[in-house]
């Protein structure tokens, strides 16, 4: 299509399985739904491309439907970046449908576009039985409290997902409590990002209690969440309880009056710090504190 970066030469190379294209970057290429169709056809039988970057284009629900067919047929694609497109809830349902059958894709980024709670629900339901996906990016996708409830159910059943980014989704304290319930029983998630969700002390305390019972999670980001000293103390305690595995908790932008403790946790908690340091609980920090 005129104006897009999807040339006939590139499509021909993909269809011929050219090994010169394994990491395909088409971000900011003005691709639309028609381009997604052409690309999907070219990739359906391609066995060389493993990484496909389509972020910041104009791919909508129809394009998502066409890409979902590719996800079912393509045997090698492991990374798909669809950040900052216009998939919507309908587009997410198409992608979710393909994930029920896909056993290859390990990294999916859908950040910075509205997908709504129905889209989150479809995605969570599809991933309950998916054993391939390890990284899911949902930052800035309007998950909300209800979406957090769906994702809590996912955490309770999925045994593959290791990284979940939910930054900037208006989850709030109730949504954090829902996620905590799923986190308590989850045994695969290593990284959970909840930056900028206004979870407050209540949400922080629920997550802290769940983290103490969880044996897998190593990093929790709750930066910029209106957490006061009460919630910070709870999270520090939870991080310390996990220090044997080098657990970390990012508390930037919370509790500006808090100070580093003498308990083996190093922290800069002021939101005005030029380069704030996440709270780190680990053997090295404990040794440094003891030496001091």
Low-pLDDT parts are 257-292
Task: Choose one word for the global shape.
Answer: elongated
How far is it from the N-terminal to the C-terminal residue, by CA? 65 Å
Task: Describe the largest sheet.
Answer: 11 strands, mixed
Give the spatial strand order of the biggest sheet.
Answer: 1-2-3-4-5-6-7-8-9-11-10
Strand content: 5-15%
Which structural class fits the helix and strand makeup? alpha/beta
User: Total strand count, please?
Assistant: 11
Helical content class: 40-55%
Q: How many helices in DSSP terms?
A: 10
Radius of gyration: 21 Å
Structural description of this entry:
This protein has helices at 8-15, 33-43, 61-73, 88-99, 116-127, 144-157, 172-185, 200-213, 229-241, 283-291, and strands at residues 23-25, 51-53, 79-81, 107-109, 135-137, 163-165, 191-193, 219-221, 248-250, 265-266, 279-281. With 292 residues, it is of the alpha/beta class. Helix 1 (8-15) packs parallel to helix 2 (33-43), helix 2 (33-43) packs parallel to helix 3 and helix 7 (172-185) runs parallel beside helix 8 (200-213). The longest helix has 14 residues, at 144-157. The protein is elongated, with a radius of gyration of 21 Å. The termini are far apart. The model is unreliable at 257-292 (pLDDT under 50).
